[in-house]
Amino acid sequence: MLRPRMEKSRHGGGGASPSFSGTQPPSALASGPASGSVPGPASGQSPGHAPGQTPPARSGSARWAVARDVAQYCCVMGALAWVTLRGTAASGYVWQWNRLWRHLYTVSADGAFRAGPLLEGLGVTLRIVAASLALALLAGLLAALLRQSGSRVGRALAVGYVETVRNTPLLIQLFVVYFVFAPMLGMGRYTAGVLALSLFEGAYIAEILRAGIFSVPIGQWEAARSLGMDVPGTYMEVVLPQAARTALPPLTGQLVSLVKDSSLVSTIALHDLAMQAQAVAADTFLVFEVWFLVAGMYLALTLALSALAQLLERRLRYEF
Fold first, then answer.
1. Phi, psi torsion values for 186, nearest 5 degrees
2. Given 24, 73, 174, 223, which is the most exposed site by the fewest CB atoms within 10 A?
3. Alpha carbon distance 75, 91 (integer Å)
4. Is residue 107 part of a domain?
């Protein structure tokens, strides 16, 4: 049975847990203190704003800080673009962007839109990222719960998995899965690539989720026990909803890393965005144009995912 170490240390020795008269829904444990205590704002919630209320508008100083950060980012990117253009001009390189767009998309004579190899590779990358993220969250959650369990075997397996994966290169893990386990299990290139990425990212997600679980106050565990909730119910109803709010920012960073790491599946001949870029560059000799465009596509994808994660984070902040 899963039982956190902090709970064991606090309630060790068979001591009786505190009891409450009456009943209280488990959802109240995650939203605030029990009835009879002094009311106050929940953790991470501004005073004067009820749960679910629309967050207040940003002040002028906050908007100015955001505008300043955007301006600094644009200045840095502009400086990099200027250095690149100066370097290519000094080497005599001639930019030929007009030859590249047909590899991105084409429009037929009847006006039909057709995706080029780069957009097709982007679609494959999105499918790989989506499948890998789902499996990585599952593997990370399982490893985090095993590290919190009372089973020595479970803890040893979780520690071995996390430490082995985190301390070996992803490329080697990809080759081991594809060349060793894939022939034994009859897996194709796509399945092997998704499995390798899932196991790699799941090890990092396990530590992120474990930190989120430890961030839940001990009083929430004690209140759940006093209501007679079992350990799985405590995790599902009380602990994991609060841990998800804490773990969301680092999970966003791990998702961005997953998008970038997915380019390594091109080494096993998966036709993702990086593989299609290599083929287009070899066919057209437009090395700079192709890789700058692909870098911009990766940048747009990661910035969009980061923006969605920030919106979700703000919503969770005012719902708890």
1. 70, 35
2. 73
3. 24
4. no
Each residue's pLDDT tens digit, 124-143: 999 999 999 999 999 999 99
Contact 136, 203 (CB under 8 A): no
Q: Nearest Cα to 254, choosing from 295, 309, 214?
A: 309
- For residue 185, the SS3 value is helix
Q: Residue 310: inside a domain, yes or no?
A: yes
Domain that residue 211 falls in: 117-319
Q: What are the pLDDT digits (tens) for 204-236?
A: 999 999 999 988 898 888 888 888 888 888 888
Specify whether the CB–CB gap between 219 and 182 falls below 8 A: no
Whether pTM exceeds 0.85: no
Between CA 196 and CA 205 the distance in angstroms is 14
Asked whether residue 69 is assigned to any structural domain, the reply reads no
> CB count, 10 Å around CB of 298?
19
CATH number, domain with residue 180: 1.10.3720.10
The answer to whether the CB of 231 falls within 8 A of the CB of 239 is: no
Cα distance between residue 158 and residue 145, in whole Å: 9
Name the band, by pLDDT with cuts 50, 70 and 90, for residue 16.
very low
Total domains present in the chain: 1
Phi then psi for 144, rounded to 5 degrees?
A: -65, -40
Q: How far is 130 from 312, CA to CA, in rounded Å? A: 18
Which residue shows structure tokens 């499995």? 195
Is residue 156, in this structure, part of any structural domain at all? yes
In this prediction, residue 200 carries a pLDDT of: 96
pLDDT, one tens digit per residue, over 178-202 is 999 999 999 999 999 999 999 999 9
